[in-house]
Every structure is written in structure tokens, then in C-alpha cells.
Design goal:
alpha/beta, Rossmann fold, SIR2/SIRT2 'Small Domain', 2 domains, two-stranded antiparallel sheet, 9 strands, 32% helix, elongated
Length: 273
């Protein structure tokens, strides 16, 4: 594994910190997979799931709210918290990492974007057909029958009454609408996971960006790609369990490192940070 500290990358530098072998691998790639985690959205101001809660929610443990049992015990509490999270997401904007990933689609023969994030920042940046392994805050559904429910396009206000908010009622069966995310103890969506695994086994270059590489089965994706012969590029400010398996590990924020890498590999395109 080759490790490079990109934390102090100068936007006017000649990108000498990015190895030529990595640049060549990207230029020659046939199928690129981009696998993103919470760190990418955090650069847009979206708190990671395990960040300490703030304001109205500082007394609550996020992991205790993200379960089926929590919803059954107190639907108003759980729905209110997820509406607060949806508000944060909708107020955020895609950052240079999201924009670079979207731009990469026109620079390589094939690109697959796989994310563990439950926001729509990839889509708002211009990426299409994103595989959401952990669901989406923007796609709630009925708890009882699974019928999709269209979330309002307006940015939510702070949850009514401080923290509790009654969930909408399903027009199909009368059940309560639940957040469209994968809770602890639930299986990942089968279709998305199968497509993600198939893409990992087919690609020749995989980016692992802003993910802790700790949450399984999603964390298996870079390993599947490596086993199939792909080169692995990790972009993360921190060390992760993937360090030993990555071909190149670039230390620094994705919103700085990824644009610089694309500028170095495709200077004619005019990508900017």
C-alpha cells in the first residue's frame, strides 16, 4: 500500500504528490466504482451518524433511535428525529467531492456510484443511478405494507413540539409511514447489494472515499474488487482497516484530494475545486 498525505495540498501546485501510476490507472480504467461513506457528506456539513447529537436531540443516542423497536415504542419521537435529519440534508449542498464524482462519469468508459449515505447529495451533484445500500431519507415508505410515500419537496421545519412529530398515514393501508433508511437489524436492500457486489467484481479500479470500512456487509465491497484484480484507491483523512488492502491511500479531505486527482489525470477537462 502506498500512502500519501494530501492534507496540505496546494491548489496551485503541480500535483507532484499524486503518483503517476495512480494517474495512469485512472486514465486507463475500463470500469470505475466509487464507493462513498459518511465522510463525503460530512464535508457538506451533514453530521455523521455517530456524531454527538446536538440541540434538541443531545439527550438521545442515535443508535437507539435507528431500530424497528424504537419506532414501535415511540413513532413520533423517531419520525421527528428523522425529519430533523432530513432537514439537515436538504439544507446542505454538494461539495467538490460530489461534483468530481459526477464529472468522472463523462471521463471514464463506465462508472458505478455506490453509497452508504442516506442523502441525495450525489444526485444533486449530477450522478445518476446511484446505488443506496442503506436506503434514503428522501424515500419513506409504509411500515406495514411497504408502499412508497412521496416526501414533500420543501425543507422541513424543526420538528413540532421540540422533538416529536406524528408520521404521515399510508393512503394504501392506513399504516404509519417510516423513514426509508435501513435500521439496525434490518437487511440491506437485496437488489442494490447484488448490483454493488457485481460491480465490485467487474471493475478494474475502485475508489473508497470517506468510509470507515467498518460497517458490513457494505465494507466487503472493496475486498471483492481487490480479489477480482482491481486496484483500490482510498481517500480518507484517517486510517481505516482498508489501509493494508489499498493500492494507494491518499490522506486528506475528499473535496480537495479528488478534484486534484481528476485535474492531474484529465487536465484538458478544466475541472476546478
Amino acid at each position: 500500500m502506498h500512502e500519501y498525505d494530501m492534507g496540505n495540498t496546494d491548489m496551485n501546485a503541480n500535483h507532484t504528490a499524486i503518483p503517476q501510476a495512480l494517474i495512469s490507472a485512472l486514465q486507463q480504467a475500463r470500469h470505475v466504482v466509487v464507493f462513498t461513506g459518511a465522510g463525503v457528506s460530512a464535508e457538506s456539513g451533514v453530521p455523521t451518524f455517530r456524531d454527538a447529537q446536538t440541540g434538541l436531540w443531545e439527550r438521545f443516542d442515535a443508535e437507539e433511535l435507528a431500530t424497528t423497536q424504537a419506532f414501535l415504542n415511540d413513532k413520533e419521537l423517531v419520525w421527528g428525529w428523522y425529519e430533523w435529519r432530513r432537514m439537515q440534508v436538504m439544507r446542505a449542498q454538494p461539495n467538490p467531492a460530489h461534483l468530481s464524482i459526477a464529472a468522472l462519469a463523462s471521463l471514464v468508459p463506465r462508472l458505478t456510484v455506490i453509497t452508504q449515505n442516506v442523502d441525495d447529495l450525489h444526485e444533486r451533484a449530477g450522478s445518476t443511478q446511484v446505488l443506496h445500500l442503506h436506503g434514503s431519507l428522501l424515500n419513506p415508505r409504509c411500515f406495514d405494507c411497504g408502499q412508497a410515500w412521496a416526501a414533500p419537496s420543501a425543507i422541513p421545519d424543526e420538528p413540532a413540539g421540540g422533538r416529536r412529530l406524528s408520521p404521515p398515514i399510508c393512503l394504501h393501508c392506513g399504516g404509519a409511514i417510516r423513514p426509508g433508511v435501513v435500521w439496525f437489524g434490518e437487511e440491506l436492500p437485496v437488489r442494490e447489494l447484488r448490483r454493488a457486489y457485481a460491480s465490485a467484481k467487474d471493475c478494474d479500479l475502485l475508489f473508497s472515499i470517506g468510509t470507515s470500512s467498518l460497517v458490513y456487509p457494505a465494507a466487503e465491497i472493496p475486498n471483492l474488487a481487490k480479489q477480482a484484480g482491481a486496484k483500490i484507491i482510498q481517500i480518507n483523512p484517517d486510517k481505516t482497516p482498508l489501509d493494508a488492502g489499498a493500492t494507494w491511500s491518499l490522506r486528506g479531505p475528499a473535496g480537495v484530494v479528488l478534484p486534484d486527482l481528476l485535474i492531474a489525470a484529465f487536465p484538458e477537462v478544466g475541472i476546478r475545486r
